[in-house]
Amino acid sequence: MEFFIISMLNGVSYGLLLFMLSSGLTLIFSMMGVLNFAHASFYMLGAYIGYSVASLVGFWPGLVLAPLVVGALGAVFERTALRRVHQFGHVPELLITFGLSYIILEMVQLIWGRTAVEFAPPEVLRGPMFTLIHHAVDGLSLVAGAAPAALCNATDAAVKVVCSPFPATRGFMMLVALLMLVSLWLMLTRSRIGLVIQAALTHPDMAEALGHNVPRVFMLVFGAGAALAGLGGVIGGSTFVTEPAMAATVGSVIFVVVVVGGLGSLSGAFLASLVIGVVQTFAVAFDVSLINLAQVMGIELSKAWKNNSVIKLTLSQVAPILPYLFLVLILIFRPKGLLGNREE
Amino acid sequence: MTVKYHEFKPYNVGRWVIWSLFALVLVFAPKLFTSSLSVTMLSQMGIAIIACLSYNMLLGHGGMLSFGHAVYSGLGSYMTIHALNMLTKGTLPIPVSLLPIIGGFAGMFFAMLFGYVTTRKSGTPFAMITLGMAELVFAMSLMFSEFFGGEAGVSGNRVVGGSVMGITYGPPAQMYYLIAVYTFISVGLMFAFTRTPLGRILNAVRDNPERVEFIGYSTQRVRYLAFIISGFFAGIAGGLGSLLFEIVTAEVVGAARSGAYLLFTFLGGATFFFGPIIGGVLMILAFVLLSEITKAWLLYLGLVFLFMVMCAPGGIASLIMMNLRVAAFGFLRRIWVSYLALAVCALVVLLGAAVMIEMVYHLQLNGAMGSTLKFIGFTFDAKSLDHWFGASFVLLTGLGLFELCRRQYVREWGEIQEDIEKEIKRREAL
Prior knowledge:
Chain A is mainly alpha-helical.
């Protein structure tokens, strides 16, 4: 039970991190029709800038400053490069962001080196947020922060006690993602700029005719999307590793999220992020293979079968390909995505 | 309407001349560049040409931006090396010369399999799905070590069996000529493909899919067929690659390889048939020579790519063709001074930028070995403020001059285009 709860929370927090990235990607895509290939690069840039600011003035200023810097860089890129190729069509737009991802990767390696940097979360977020104690006699209980050693070591050897801590960084990740989700939703539906954005999404020409500067709205949306990625980067970088490969690791997963959720659907991206986050987290935790399945079903396998590499694969080994398999299955059975509403 | 090229029916002379020249270049290239490095590079160029052309069948002719083309060439490579190993064991009675065809069929098979899913979509969704497919295959390559050989890869030996007419594929030159033959035939077949009804309707699918649907074609099926054919040629390129290197590692299906195909096909020029040939040659030059000269080559490559996407989305091929048009009307001498000025300014910018980039790289990578570095024959001190100031001064001056020249050039170019239009009108009136 406590394994399930902790894994579920881990999965949800990872899913929410994915959503921080895919929301910006979806907004940019649905608005400008541009798939921002460099989105994960902005995530990496956020982590590295956050690391630099954190080592100078502390983590919390970094959490605010890094997204602003990344957002500004994104806006500058949109203004100087992306807008110029807009006239050539969608393929050059995609290509220019592809080229940008190369340049950002090289720049990051140039400035911060090729190895991982030590980006530690602040003092408050180190250690567990709460600890689940599973006592064989007393049942499940919850303690805020780290559990005292006395609670985890039963006095009676016959009684089994398991303590499962939940890291505070993960909790913080969930908190920030949820805050971001709510404020994004409020901004899009309740504020004036949100209404202009929505209008520019569906009827750009009409919005322009009504006197709104649609190219500037595009620039703001691109900058905001990059800033969200940067924010995700500061949190993701301090929770996981900050290294040059982090963009590639997360990049292809968020593309899967965006396609699976349905292109241009923000709620679809949310659902798909959670599903993929949870599935991947659970898959890593299970060490079962088809051999175990056969044992459960009571089938005796021959020795040759047991050495077959496909049969031998455990679920945790398969975990990296699960999002892509999911993508293929969705495309075959529901081509418009989970919550997409238009067939390409 | 009059035909624009010289024609003696039933022969199109220009085409015969160009293809004969291409064959001559393929035959005599290793006679001119005889060192073993250049023969290997020429062989790799042949392979890269096939791969880039097959990629351009998707990008240029079909408007399909694929991020996973290396999957088909890479799986072709794996199948070929396994076939070669079976041949060594004596279980497969096929001459080595025909092994790349096995790679081709493997690429075709996987293109059929994966293309069924990917080609359901077009445009941006297609791009994302191919990316997902590429990641899927790459992740699998680390899981199934029997087939993919794990970290070490699969190796083979192409010198098997006796010699047939003295050909054993032992010397690199013999391997080069095998690749040259395959290159010539593949390029010819791919050019022929662009002239078939399928090739034509593929262009139509790229330009106006809605209208193609209206006249009764399934755009999805056209894309699927083109994808399969492209996979076949990619597989041939992969098969030749595994014969050349005699080892196949998981990086042949990796995202970096797919990205390189995309980058260089685009740089060469996706809008013309011969663009990817330039791209393939550039790819090997960059991979082998540029990476020797500087460690920052990927950065330079990215910057050049960004510049090309913004200023010349048709690639090098379109630049050549536009200037050929100007030359054909005899206006090239009006603009060559501008070209010279642009080139000099670009060189100044490059010099300033390169010195700064190299100094940063030196500090980052070899900081422990002192702060001085040798670059293009001069010694720079990466910690000296003077050198940084000098480099940035050169860069800024270059940028300013470049902008001035560019404005002059754009004005002249506009005038020339107007004159060409006038000239065309005048000739029509004759």
